[in-house]
Amino acid sequence: MSETYEILALKYGENTARKAADNFMNPIPDDHASAMPIDYFVFLIRNANRTILVDTGFDHKEAAARGRKITVEPIEVLKRIGIAPDSIKETIITHLHFDHAGTMDQFANTKFHLQTSEMAYATGPCMCEASMRMPFTADHVCQMVRHVYSGRVHFHDGDGHIAPGITVHHCPGHSKGIQAITVNTAHGPVVLAADVVHFYANIEQRRPFFITIDQEATLKSYDRLQAMAAGKLKNVIPGHDPLILKRYPAWKPETEGIVHKLDAPRIG
User: Fold this and answer.
1) Comparing C-alpha atoms, which of 25, 22, 45, 44 is closest to residue 35?
2) I want to staple 36 with a disulfide (CB 3.0 to 4.6 A). Which of 20, 29, 139, 140 is the partner?
3) What are the domain boundaries of the chain?
4) Contact 142, 102 (CB under 8 A)
5) How far, in Å, CA of 207 to CA of 12, rounded?
6) Residue 68 gets which letter from DSSP?
């Protein structure tokens, strides 16, 4: 029997210096210099039976190494809403880029869900090319390898079942093994696209993000996301868009701009 879930977007950082030209493969010439900031999120899926984290973000050390700045580390936002890192038993890693797999060592009791093709890509010959390995951090990938050896990784080869009402789906293009998540809520299916879609504009205007290893696969993944969302693009949640916090209500008044509820009807 399927279950329904609450979904929370937890913001832990932002980059307000980004321009539109930084976010699209083919920026519109008249628009390339306009401001287009990016937010950094992890996501939480939960009900009375289970709590599942989506991605682990990155920490201050990684931020400094990459010239980024985050407000707090993801575990601090989790603690603010009463979630102890050691209490999380299941974590979906959508892909192994630095901003999605950067604090895995802070979740000592979790099992990680990952696509087989992402592990192969992040440890294979493509990583001999500087341009291909740029979004990855070797220490993060090595941590995942160690988790494999300690029995803490569950691999999915394409579509996979996480729990009643939660499934993962291989949607390549941004990375070779990136996966999106479909979550059953009281208001219907919600698709957490992660970086299959960074911004609403990527999928709404069919303009892929600038880090794309396969543009054709990305566009096909956009179609798949829409099908997974019962044909409604409004049910697709991108991985980094500040508009998420404008289109969905705060979890509580005091979490405005930090923790917002995605299983609620969209504002406007």
Assistant:
1) 22
2) 20
3) 6-166+241-261
4) no
5) 26
6) -
Helix, strand, or coil (residue 52) = strand
Residue with tokens 């932002």: 14
Task: Return the CATH number of 6-166+241-261, one of 3.40.50.1100, 3.55.40.20, 3.60.15.10, 3.50.50.60.
Answer: 3.60.15.10
- Note whether 131 and 145 are within 8 A (CB): no
Looking at this protein, which amino acid is placed at residue 24? F
Instruction: Over range 149-166, report the average pLDDT.
Output: 98
Alpha-carbon span 3 to 47, nearest angstrom: 8
Q: Cα(175)–Cα(211) distance, rounded to whole angstroms?
A: 8
Q: Please identify which residue in the block is written with the tokens 């809403």.
A: 81
DSSP string of 185-248, one letter each residue: ETTEEEEEEETT-SSHHHHHTT---S--S-HHHHHHHHHHHHHHTTT-GGGEEESS-TTHHHHS
Nearest to 166 by CA among 19, 50, 39, 36: 50
Dist CA 129 CA 176 (whole Å)? 15
Give 3-state DSSP helix, strand, coil % of the chain, rounded to 5.
30, 25, 45
Helix, strand or coil, per DSSP, at residue 64: helix
Alpha-carbon gap, residue 9 to 45, rounded angstroms:
9
pTM surpassing 0.90? yes
Alpha-carbon dihedral angle through residues 236, 238, 241, 242, given to the nearest 10 degrees: 50
- The one-letter amino acid code at 44 reads L
